[in-house]
Amino acid sequence: MSRQLFRGNLVRLAAVEPEEMSKAMPRWNLDTEYYRMLDSAPPLLWSEKKVKEWIDKDLDKDPAQDLFFSIRTLADDRLIGFMSLFDYSGHTGDALVGIGLGEREYWSKGYGTDAMRVMLDYVFNELNLRRLTLIVFEHNPRGIRSYQKAGFVLEGRVRGAMQRDGRRWDWFWMGILREEWARMQPGE
Amino acid sequence: MENDMLKGKLVRLVAGDPAIEAQEFCRWGANSEYQRLCSTDYALQFSAKKWKEWFEKDMEKDPPLYHYFAIRTLADDRLIGGISLDGAAYPSGETFVGIGIGDETDWGKGYGSDAMNIILRYAFEEMNLRRVALDTFEYNQRGIRSYEKVGFIHEGRMRGYLNRDGRRWDMLFMGILREEWEARNR
Known about the structure:
The structure holds two protein chains of two kinds. By secondary structure, chain A is an alpha+beta fold.
């Protein structure tokens, strides 16, 4: 039990302080490349006020509907993104995971993969899920590689689900089973 | 009469201040080991804002849901944890106690046992209760030793109650009766 659940090699998953996150998110969302990887809906620029209301309402639910974490660097405790777990289903033992790294200078440096590994440890060892699911877009090869590195397998694609910049793009469904994850752990 | 019944040898029990408590609870919660020793709920990350609301809501209830005390060191008045009794102790004369020492560096130093001794004295001499109960988990060997040291007796176990890190763990029930406590403190 002395192992740390929320701590990876580069980042940790921490609480979301509404004041802090509602300042960061509107700034991150100005970056449309970031926004389009995150969401299939057309980018909408929410105000700080609106984001704060959303967080307050969301976090106030008891029990919480979604689990919402901030991603902070271990090196200097900087807030660089967020991670959420939603559509949790007790009887199927499945949930959807979402991740966003708002600070671009942390892209392609292993921060996202590290956060995802922390989340996998948490969902399998603490929440006791059977599997974890995510959706990623065809135009996000960096994300796809990161998820594969963390152990996710491509399970299906929704062909031409999105239209952006004059062409259609697929949605990828990816998933990882508990036993697949267990086999990846050291000592297995 | 004892001069200060909320004072022990290493620590004293004082009122919790929501603003201060919230910051520390948020910081302590970052350590999942602490959370897993305290609670059967799955570990989460609550913001300081959320903790503050919880404290304020909780403490404002009348009668209170818990009798919550902050644990502070006698040596330097440092906030190191919290201890609480269930509010609804009557008419059965029984209460349930919960304790947490936040920082890993304060574990294994007798602070928890000292705080528990104070709360037992409070429960039996001030609230005039008949028994005090607690539950803990199989993997919390340090806690179990501490509870045994202050006089708690093993009363039962719920087998395989918890599922953590890929195996099942028992939940242990412990309790101490008024006469047992009196015999130890005569």
